Amino acid sequence: MIVLLIIFIFIFYHNPFFSNSKIHSSNNVVELSKIAKENIETEVFSWSLSIPKIGLSQIKISEGTDEETLAQFIGHFNETALFNGNVGLAAHNRGSIKNYFQDLNLLEKGDLLYYTYQTETRTYEVEEKIIISVYDWSYIKRKDSVNLLTLITCVENNPNERLCIVAKERGKE
């Protein structure tokens, strides 16, 4: 699919039939190159979170929890697992460009989450919903024998606390 797209771009760009058309402009070639790059990245590497109860569907995840990352993506705590183990994720719930965790407080024990890393998707079930101190990193550092998904976001009007959702891989004990 990607190879065909690249061949199409090459033929399209070098074909004299289109040489005087607006389609041949450098902006369009750059745009087609961006589309090709996005397709390659999507096919090779997919990293997302879905939480149907709160309307999240395949929201992209990016490495890091800095402001720049959280302004656009769900962020991954780089000291946590990527797939096997405790995966730690963070997102804003208000006051940002993207507030993916704005309804995280609506989750309850038993709600389902779907985490995709590369070509595999796992189903997780909410086990705990707790308020923790902004300095409490014990939930992110947990090393259990099962796969966990730990979600962290702010608590409105309380800068010293965070909402923490811990979900366990479904069907695993």
What labels would you give this structure?
Sortase, Chain: A; 173 residues; alpha+beta; globular; 3 helices; 2 domains; eight-stranded mixed barrel
CATH-assigned fold name of the largest domain: Sortase, Chain: A
| CATH homologous superfamily placement of the largest domain | Sortase
Assign the CATH class of the largest domain.
Mainly Beta
Strand order of the largest sheet: 1-2-3-4-7-8-6-5
- Radius of gyration, taken over Cα atoms and rounded to an integer in Å: 20 Å
Number of helices: 3
Query: Uncertain segments of ≥5 residues (pLDDT<50)?
Result: 3-37, 39-44
CATH architecture identity of the largest domain: Beta Barrel
The number of domains? 2
Q: Would you kindly provide a written description of the structure presented here, covering whatever features stand out?
A:
Helices cover 21% and strands 35% of the residues. It contains three helices and eight strands. It folds into two domains: 43 residues; 123 residues, Sortase, Chain: A (Beta Barrel), CATH 2.40.260.
